[in-house]
Amino acid sequence: MFLPPALAALQFLAALQMVVGEAVAEAEEAEVAGAVAAVAAAEVRMNIQDRVGMGWRSELAGGILSNLDRIDVLEVIAEDYCDGSARLRALQSLARQVPVVIHGVSLGMASTVAIDHKRLGKMARLVDRIQPESWSEHLAFVRAGDIDIGHLAAPPRTSSTIEGTAVNLAAARAMVGSMPLMENIATLINPPASDRDEPTWLHETLASANASMLLDLHNLYANSINFGLDPNVFLARLPAERIHAVHISGGQWICNGTSKNSRILDDHFHDPPDPVYDLLADLAALCPNPLTVILERDGDYPPIDHLLTQLDRARRALASGRAAAGKPVPLHFGLAETVPVQKAQARRLS
Ligand SMILES: [Fe+2]
To answer: Are 210 and 325 found together in one domain?
Structure first.
């Protein structure tokens, strides 16, 4: 008869106690109990239901809809559906076919400026109509006063922005009815006036707001390479217990004439590089939560089969990490080709 390893170990412990009775030394009992706990913990990790999906893009609609058996979940950009009843009905239809999560890009939560309640109200109505499994936004600011950047920008990493983010997230939770998962963003410059590094700021911001995290692994990777951090150390310094969702994507090297000023641009026009998959395996080994992994692609769309292959690769990375159960996964950094900045896509998405 097959027994799960944890149950078999418990039965072994009971049988051992019957055979040797009170003679079982406390130390031996503790050792076996420890082994039981370890096996049980490993079983929990192996049974975690991770999911892998992709961002819904109209250019990919046909390929996605004909391959829903290979896509666990879809992520939809909120702003594409905040206006227009016809589009909303289409999204409701999609949500009846496949689990949907909603991703906002314009609220500007990480700011000392109060969140725009009109925009937040639109998000609240969308969440109410679609009833997604979760919704998310960025740890970024996009406007201040009358100036709208139209772009996700990294705020100064200070106690002021930590406090401002907590206030804005409390407002979001009150109006929408749930807290968004908060995503780390890519940046090409270290935010001026910062008094702490990015891992510290992320950790303190999430703790202050009691928020969960959508971890964009390419953003983590690009920022690490661009600013001289070790991606493994960056990942290890994040609160793994707060991470519930993941983005994977790709970018390209850009430079403005000198190698010293080269940067990785997170453009979503390329496949995730190998280190991102390595980081995903590493995260799966560290994180106790089921993970929803979304492949982001915003241009230069390849055939759908190519994207589905990347979903499969993400599943293998997750399985590898879960199996490792806490053992560090070595990373091998193979960087993409350097291209002049003028040839790079100006559009940056997180
Ligand atoms: Fe992202």
So the answer is: yes
Domain identity same for 29 and 129: no
Give yes or no: residues 282 and 217 share one domain.
Answer: yes
pLDDT (tens digit per residue) in 273-311: 999 999 999 999 999 999 999 999 999 999 999 999 999
The CATH number that applies at residue 255 is: 3.20.20.150
Q: Which amino acid is at 248?
A: I
Asked if 92 contacts 129 with a C-beta cutoff of 8 angstroms, the reply is yes
For 23, the enclosing helix (H) or strand (E) is none
CA nearest 225: which of 280, 176, 279, 166?
A: 279
- Per-residue pLDDT reduced to its tens digit, 22-43: 444 554 565 656 555 554 554 5
Same domain, 41 and 78: no
Task: Give residue 325 CA to ligand 1 midpoint distance, Å.
Answer: 25
Q: How far is the CA of 329 from the centre of ligand 1 (A)?
A: 23
21 CA to centre of ligand 1 in angstroms: 58
In degrees and rounded to multiples of 5, residue 67 shows phi and psi of -135, 30
Say how many Å lie between the CA of residue 94 and the centre of ligand 1: 22
Domains of the chain: total? 2
Q: How far is the CA of 296 from the centre of ligand 1 (A)?
A: 7
pTM here is 0.80
